Fold each of these.
Amino acid sequence: MEIVSRPHVKNFIEWSRDKPEVLVLTADLTNSCEVGSWREVYPGRFFALGMAEQNMLGFAAGLAREGFEPFIHTFSVFIYRRAYDQLAMSIAYPNLPVRMLGFLPGIVTPGGVTHQAIEDIAVLRATPNMTIFDTGDATEVESVLDVAHAVDGPVYVRMLRGDMPRLFPQKEPMVFNRARVLSQGDDVSILTSSVATEAALRALSVLKAKGVSVTHLHVSTLKPFSDPTVLEAITRSRCGVITMENHSTIGGLGSAVAELMAENAVAKPLLRLGLKDTYAHGASMHYLMREYGLDAGSLVKAVEKLLGAQLGIDERMLTAVPVEEIDSSERVEAL
Amino acid sequence: MHSNSKSTADWIGEVARIAANIRRRGFAYVLQNDGGYLSQICSSAEIFAYLYCRGLRLGASRAPMIPVLFTAVPGQGQANLSGAAYNGPASPELDRFIFSPGHYALVLYVTLIEVGRMAPEGLMGFNTDGSTVELISAEHSPGAEVTSGSLSQALSVAAGIAMGRKLKGHSGNTWVMMSDGEFQEGQTWEAVQTLAHYKQDKVKVIVDVNGQQCDGPMDAVMPIEPLAEKLNAFGVHAVSVDGHDVAAFDQLAQTDTKGKPLFILAKTNPTRGIDLLETRRPTLHYLRFASAAEKQAFQKAYDAMAQEA
């Protein structure tokens, strides 16, 4: 598996070149959100607003009203927690094309509870006019810009930063409201998002080797949530559905799937893996994913529960698995 | 409409006449409505009259004289219904008006009527179901460009609008009308530090400093004074003036602030023109008649005012 370092830095500079309407706003986290070089290339399009997020969101709204496309770069928590009224009234209500790139989604940071956005999707799914994307690898961090750019209204993106895997080929960019089908099978359907997808991929190959037939979807559009691929995957599963998300189990991917199942009368068990109505604490991502049941081992246990059978998979088998670049179209073809 | 050709005496007389009309029509409406934001009408009549007759450089209204009914909230694929159409086109050389304290909406609507941008019948829709002439304005309401009922948000939006206009090379000003209570909100000061840092001298703010808020006198609830000193310490050009002295507003509006955004702090009397309101102190924010006798007393005061006119 290829590890890509800071893909947003160069990609965003290139992407912005022919889009003079694109501006960047930051709140004292410029390099932390990988736009320090962008500022050097486009100094006239860059606005530092200081540690004052409420004003920054309003300022972005004003710029958007004048025909610009502001890209806010800060940590997720300072967007939806600190400045929610401004987000709802100044940006979302008027349906303005402000792109809010939120860094440090879920438990990817050792920054602890103050820096971990664990209920952002829940809050923003409930906010009218919002569109929500959740990136899972370098290809999505790169291609989410085009997807966001095309939306007539405000967009919130859960961005990854620093070193990250390239799970999906660059020639397969993220597509609006379309899940990636990573494998197809009839026993269990698994839907994952954000960094939970990489963890799930570790479990998947071992599960398949044990003869479990799995449909696995990676979901990157969380609002709207009307992709027919998702309903098909849920419907076809013989034993039930599992969601695994880098977020609280309340209000995020698991809740969205639960709503879909209820609305479509899909009477099957649903297991939601994620933060179970709890805050987290400061520690490494891998430590926290294990602690809060977002790792490959937790997914295997959930599959065993749905199947009602022990599969005899141990920790060593999971960590030994190299996660290959997944070409989802080929994978689907192969099935 | 703005005109520098008028002599000083002419425009001041005109503004005073419009301010008196705003007070009278607003008072009549509060009586008819069995209560309302009367003290805001008393305090801000000169501010709105000055803005619409002199301060704002606006083009002709592009909105119907009788406001359309509410259609839909903004959303994907929705045509945006903007109350800013009452303030004319958003042309590069013209001013923009960003109205901040949404609960002053009645004063705004009455002003639009008095300056000929809305028909008197337009006020019939005020606070009635299905109307855009809402109790607290949203951006579909006449004269409102921003949904600003959540106080202190409009100044930040105006700063962004003004920055966007600067990037596009617009020469017009971006005016903001605020209430003094909004200076209790932290966001206001975030916006002020931004306006000062980016030297946004095309932003002109006029504040109704009436010293009143929902719970009573601001000095008792949460004082903001010395407001001018605080603002100037933040790096803007803030001056306190008699809030009913429109010549003083104009002098400030014409001042070269040398890169600093302007804050006109209009120290107003929230019972101005309706002495009977003094009986309602200390809480003036919203007038609800306590008895039929009280309403009658206010009706008498209105009749006397109308007689005088």
Amino acid sequence: MVKDIKQEESFPPEVLETLRNMVLAIRAVKLYPANNPAYATAVKKSFAALNKFLQSHDEYRLEIHKNYFIYENMPFKKDAEFNLPIVQDLFVKGIREMIFLPGLSEEELLEFYQALALTIEEQEMKNGIASILWEKSVAHIRITETGLDEVIKTQTPRRWGEQSPGGADAASKTSDAETEKRQAGVPHRTLVLFDLIDDPLRFGENIVELAKQTLTEGESLEDRLFALYKEAGRKIDREQPEQRETLYEGLAKSVLSLDPAYRNGFIADKLYGDLDVDLSKEQPLSEENLPGPLHEIQSGRFSDAWTIQQIAALLKKAAAKPPEPVKPTGQLAYLEAKPVDSDIISIAAEITQYSSEEMNELRAITEANLEWDTVRAATRTLISLIPHIKNPAHIGQGEKTSTVFAGVITQMENMLDFLLKKKDYPYATLIVHALQMPTETEYRAKVSEALSKASARTVLMDAIRELRSHVMDSPEYRAIFQYLSMFERETTEVLLKLLAEEKERKARIFYLDLAKEISKNQTALLGRYLSDDRWYLVRNIVNIMAESKEDQAMAYFRKAADHKNVRIRQEIIHSLQSIGGKKAVSFLARFLSDEEEEVQKTALQAFARFPGISEDEAVFLINFLNSRPLSKKEQNLTLMAIGVLGNIGGRQARDYLKKYTKVRWWRPRKLQEELKTAAQRAIKEISWRMGDGG
Amino acid sequence: MVDEQGDKILEARQSYFEKQRLVESARIAFQFLAAVLRNASLYPQQHPILQSSAEKLQAKIQELLAERNEVPFYLVRGELFFETTPVPIDQSFSVAIEQFTDKDIGGIIFKPNVAVEEIGRFADMIVNEEIMPSTQEGLSVATAKRGIFHISIQHALLVDKKIGSVIKAREKKASSVFRDTINALKDVVQAVYLEKASSMRQMNSVVQNMVDYVLDNRDALIGLTSIKMYDEYTFAHSINTSILAVSLGTYLSMTKPQLAALGMAATMHDIGKVAIPKEIINKPGRLTEEEWEYVRRHPIAGAVFLSKIPSITKLAMVVAYEHHQHGQNAYPVPEALHRRHPFSQIISLADSYEAITASRVYYKSKIPPHEAIRILVKNRGVTSNPVLLKAFINMVGIFPVGTLLKLDTGEIGLVMHQTSDLMRPRVLILTRFDGSEKEDSKIVSLADRTNGKYRRSISGTIDPEEARINLRPYFE
């Protein structure tokens, strides 16, 4: 307000004289009764001085600072002490400017001084000094006040033909001419509430103008606007209850129409700030829950897309509160200090000491590898996000869960790609594990796509090669093995390919051992390869399938039992031995009638070593022996079968073997003797096993 | 992804370490200078103890001279600078600073070929000369008379003119760094609202500037966090959290790339709130439990948003997701035994601290700054690892920068820097409350003593809002 403070010596004497007389008159009217001669004399002298001044000037304008008067931007420092009580009184009463115009009458001046002599309460009862002057038709004195109380008018629009209950008397007294005179007398200072209905934008412009003009020291424009809007709200509540909603809506519109330079700060800090203060009383800061809910909301109001209803509600809330007393700035009297509790001193002392463990912990935090740290933490977070993003309520408005899901899965793919390149299999496995979790149909396509990338042939080949470079059961080995195990089928295919193509025996053995672990449940896939021409491959497959010990494997073995390659048939026999069980034995029996003696021999050996075979299964061998002709060519296999029968047979087998103990004269003796010896040995073995000594 | 940044990171790391090394060398040199002055007040010039300390100083000066033409120390408004780089003041040289300040000395410049004897004569002059010449010319004559030709003493006024403006320009930059970061965040938020692709290039760049600034002058930015941002607290909160987190990072001697990632993650930690329906976040009243549930989902929305942005550290996504996973009401509910990333813990800590201080500033909750520390201490192990909390308090102080103190001398002091004694920060004495003290008042350390007794101590804290004192001019 005071732009250029100069020395008051430069004031013309008539300015000083006029002010001095005015101060004396205000004081006299305030102190003395009207019949006191000092009262009339002071007013008269003051009028004379003003009148003289106004004859040669357009106006006598005084600004009121809290401690001094200002004339044309220059403070009156002379007589400052003398003026001080008056100027402070005017300031407290909210008067910021007084303008005296030519044509001023002594009566008008007296009315003015009498109005100033009223107490604040009396002034408020009469709606302020401006209203008093207006009622008394004082046209040659204008004042500017700090509040809106006197400048916001609830002019009832003529077209409605209604009168507000609160303002009925005033409205009846107010002629249109008077209103116009009043508005013209204080340009830009009169805000008409009903403008809020017709033209809230203009109301907004005017209120900013008014705020600028009535701004006081230490006050921001937003502060001032807030005070004015609150005052307008109170006026609506008090005088226009039936139009309340419409007027508040207009008030909100005017707020939203303010220049963004003021609007955002006004709404965010003042209107919402006021709300936050109230809410913070309802929800005080909880020490256990930081940051608290209120702060979460306050720090989340990124959007300035406020609605009329929201602003109207905030304005209503603000207007309902009683006005707060204004405190002066920077006064030492207000610098009340909160003492510091003694426990703070002990906290301060304790907090500066670090133990060696704490130092190590801090070092570990700061020395963490940023790159790996980031990748691993991001992996964990992406995995944690999956269940949330399938829920439409957990994602942003207008976004499809499937789109968000696809985005996150793409991120996981990228992360996985990076992890695999860096051979970080533990974290890669975490991602795959997350991707393999059961998911709803709508997300499956994306997940499958990601899993296909994770199990691409090249990826698995690299993993298998990497696996070979680590010691078995080392942490690295286990991590890669786990990754491969997540893709049993795909890894099996890769391993079969490697087994088929690998030239190095050591490598083949490694692949085979790996496949036995990883592929043992991939029977269907392995079964498909059983008809392959490459015997060495099929042999490996059979070997692998044997590890599964599943009935399903036997179904595939049955198909391959007639494989033209003897070695494959023999491998199946070995596998049956590995699988074990009654079904395997019964399947094994068919190889006793194989066209190749080598196969029959392998089958007999399998019977001898078959784990857990019972004496009931001896019947297969008895049948086999029954079919054997007595000939030199067949003799070895027959002897072998008798021996095996001795190994596994029971009472029935023993009885059966007795037939070989009799030598028939019409048949080749040597062959029969050999059979007899073998049978006796077998019977002895059975008897010994049965514990009856024969 | 990370490989491409390898060279940049290495370069940044090197320059960071070089600067840290320089600051450390300068600090040690000044410590030696303080020791020489102390010994000069106790022993005669030829005493071996004084000689030995002067030799140490001379050796350190020679080391610093290897890469420059002179070794200048400046004192500007109570702060120590080597060239234009601030040097943290510790208690061991506060007496030396006091001696210089009392004698209106603003700069000591060591030149090549400075001899041990010269250092002795210089120390004797500083310690024993009651009144120093009041002009620069006078100082030059006085030093020459004593045979000091390779140490130049500069008058405080000259130093203020010479490098004060450089420092002021940098301080000015603190508010523009702050403003730039807010504007960049606004752009990102705007892009999200408009469903436009967000480029993080600008954001990365402003966060890097902020990191540079924190490395240079942490306290100036921390001071700004204490100032109320009337119209833009929502944005300021994220930036304040970022400044506090990065400041803790510098306190923990993190590397520049770590600091940049930390700063970025902190700036973006609340970005998920953009997804909260506007009618909820701008509701002119208390939220219902159902509405509050939306607010609780912001970490997920934030993480999803950040996961899609390629040019931003993935730690931003991690922190956005994890920053509320602490305490009884953690959300999203963490898995059992889940251990949050240290950055998430640092940012939660900064976030919580900022929330407590904001409650004082914005809701008139009457919580003095030291009370915020008490609340955090009470919650130790909840919001973050207790050792991180300890480091945070050591960094921010019991009376953080920007705290208004009433002193037992009746003076009002504004905390400008911390010292190793958390109860005795360095304060600017306020007399006019309009920011102008910054220009002419000195910063005093509450650790200063006379005859073994502290000159000033804290008797209480003052709420600047209550006292209607605008602190903005002191930090802008």
Amino acid sequence: MKLRGRAIYDGRADGIALVSSSPMSFYGGVNPDTGEIVERGHELRGQSVKGRVLVFPYGKGSTVGSYVLYRLRKNGVAPCAILNAKCETIVAVGAIISEIPCVDMIDIGKIKPNAEVKVEGSTVLLR
Amino acid sequence: MLAGREGHATQKAMQILVALGEIYGARRLVKVSSVQVSGVSYKNLGDAGLQFLDELARDGKARVKTTLNPAGMSLTDWRSQGIDPHFAEKQLEVIDAYRRLGLEISCTCTPYLAGNEPGFGEHIAWGESSAVAYANSVLGARTNREGGPSALAASLTGRTPLYGLHLRENRVPTHSVEVEAQLKSPEDFSAMGYFVGRAVKDGIPRFSGVKRASLDELKTLSAALASSGGVAMFHIAGVTPESKLSGGRAESLTFTSHDLEETVAQLNDHGTPDFVSVGCPHCSIGELATLARLLKGKKVRKEFWVCCSREVKRKSDELGYSRPIQRSGAKFATDTCMVVAPIEDMGYRVVATNSAKACHYLRNSGLRVRFLTLEKCVAEATRGVET
């Protein structure tokens, strides 16, 4: 299946989907050194974003979250791509400064957990 | 700029602005005359933020007047504040990166009291939520609520995407607030802001029934509205410059004397304060005059921080207000404040302050708070520690 969205940060990536149906907070929600999701009560708590195609509706929380994405990247534990229903400032800025391919305006409900995903610019291929 | 011909930092900055412009449906970029950058305290930036700034500083330069938010410590007197030397070293590295980027090193949340005062109708890009609300509402300048990187991007390019509060049609009130309570002090305005911010979230409230409001009252109202909610602009009928703007439907609410009492009660935890601080947002020269009068001839018996910008401190030195304040044992905390300095790591547990905003953020840092008037803060500091 092919989904077309809008490239927030243009790039290519291949990976396994890690899907959250709830919004994500990076500041305080993801450990910047390990990539582990630590937000209390979050459905993906305990899982790692490292190397995954991270799928969630939109970002929330402090704008410092952009710097957390950057820190994940520098520590080698960042997601390989980010897919959003609607991207907002925190994730957009984070993806750009960290150079993580990021696409939004796609129907993220079509992406099953652990699906193989290929991102090419504004196109998302599901296998 | 986007193609990278003006360097890596400018290109990154332009990528951020273009992406934000697309997300929020801006038709074009607009030139800005002033920038205020948040994200200065090492407590919030961490090593990642520092690394990012270092990278930008290799070839980036500010193109417009740009000032900074408070840092995690006084840049000159951090030793007497009891700041950890490792923290201090990292904080000074952050400041050095900003200096190389060509920013003015005046670390304050009240740039409008320290020489960065945009005029009516000017497009600007400000971070620091309280200053955003003040600039839009009181000065009539136009800015969205920027994060650290997006404000910095505006500084390095001199531009910001034209959307949101840059457009007149988005500056009309969404809520109409009838103020029935008698507001007797800046702290009453602070409590009202805290109550209304929670109710209207990121809406634009228009207050009526407030006859006059001083600079200090508008300053603390701005801060409180932006901390419990996401308010970036408000109007006060007959007081603020765009209060006649109308259009669309505004939801109604009232602020009663009961609401005022209840909000003040909610902002007070149990416990005897071991730390007293005023100046959130940073003190004006008027507040320092009041403090000088209240502290004259007295001794403080607790750690007491008076937070203000270097510029206002200088004025206070000239006018003779600083001396009685310092003689009392109170400490000036310039470049910083009780919210961004790591005071929870310095052993303090209960903070007394005259700011609802400070109460909000200090609680998030795990501290207990007492919300008192400026006069009562001084009384609390001078009456000593109960045993």
Amino acid sequence: MKTKIKELRARFNLTQEDLANKIGVRRETILFIESGRYNPSLKLAKKIVNFFNEKIDDVFIFEKKDLKN
Amino acid sequence: MLDINNLCDFMKTKKDKKLKYKLMMAFGGFFAAVALFCSFYNLIPNAVASGITTFATCLFVIGIIRLYIKKEPLIDEMVKKANQTAITGSWILTLIVVSLLFWINIIFKNILSTFQILSLILFFMLISDLILRSYYLKYGIKE
């Protein structure tokens, strides 16, 4: 899964720590989501996209291989 | 009236946690001192005093570490998931160890006592849980 959180952060001029504080998670969690090493829950994903005022599909991009069992 | 939501939120804030660790240190220090005092004057058996002292010292040391050295991170969903995944992995590894110990005891005809087996299982489970937890928190949980 790819995410556009890094680009959005850059657009909003936010550091990982700023975003983490706004969302209410640890900075490391944002780092792992950005690098694709952690898949956030739907609730956290929704919180992130709501913060950036985007759609969930625009921020979290699933490839075909991600949807395979 | 008892509010279950407030009860669940108890000791979750930073201030409450500081108080919790201070209490841990105070209780640990107090019980260690009492156990040593009782042991010195032979008021309780040495084995009991030794157990209490060890437990109390652990409480005291954990309190110091959490309060001054390694401050507890904010617990978010990733930490919770890392904990869950670690304990699951730890259970599976412990199951393998239990089956190994079972066959060792069968083949070598009760070479290990019940106490030794229980100690090994407890030690292995705690250590594997700690290792897996730190691994998932360091490298992420790849699904």
